[in-house]
Amino acid sequence: MGKELTDAFFQLIEKIPREKIGTFPTPVNQIHLGKNRHFWVKNDGLCGSEYGGNKVRKLEYLLPAIKISGQNKLVVQGDEMSHTVAACSIYGRKHGFKVTAVVFPHGRMDENENLLPDLVRSGVKIKKTSNMLTALMVAKFISMVPGSYLVPLGATTPISTIGYVNAAHELTKQIERGELPPIKYIFIPFATGGTVAGLLAGLALLDSPIRIIAVQSVDGIIANMRSLKRLLSDVLSLTDQRKYLDAALARLKTLDAKYLGKGYRDVTFESVEAIQQLEPAGLRLETAFTAKAMAALLSSAHKLQGDEILFWNTHDQEYCKAG
Predict the structure, then answer these.
(1) Same domain, yes or no, for 61 and 111?
(2) Which domain holds residue 228?
(3) Higher per-residue confidence, 209 vs 6
């Protein structure tokens, strides 16, 4: 896509209803690994004043779409430390929605221990269940109430994924301004696929040479190539650009499942090491998603020496400071 067509496309995206939640562009900074090795971080964890992370970009498009459909109640489900539950509850309430969160035990209450009490104080209704399957069933039942919207896993829909199509454009502009050098590879967690699909679509539309290394952080029944391809197709179809599907898929260098461990929320040795190694640099990771992606980056850094690589942080850095 030529520059004029690219600019026209992103102007078209600007016409899609959007509710300002985050502060963009998110900052980039360099982290040194020693031995003349380094990588760059794009920190979406700092995009929200109350709660950061990748859900903010998604909700900027999802919440207005829900309002336009006439629904005023959000039903969201996840474990007790779920970032989807946190972001949808905090920003849903702030933007006029009634919110019910259906949660199940996390297993490791080592981060954001005050999250649920804080949500209750903000007016969120909490329904506690014993396991994931029960939570899904209860959430589906509650969402049958007229005016209710059942938030999908990860708040991932074709319309919410537009947030990360825009993010690819944002990164390109930062490179053009000299805030960081041209990037060859982006490491990013891969779960429900909205973040990865949006970046792939955006990079393809920009004809960018950047390639994505998507690090699987949930089980394959959710994170797989078939679902990613379907989401990509749906996102591109929103603006009649499905012809770029193959180009978008070509931007995916690797779908790396080596750091998943036993599955979602499994705390691997490599993820704990990654957290400890990055903590002195001021980057807060968590064991389920970002630490697994960082573990992949750290183990690959020596192979990619000479290439500029970027870690796209999708984990909140704001709530943890206030909590």
Answers:
(1) yes
(2) 3-50+157-321
(3) 209
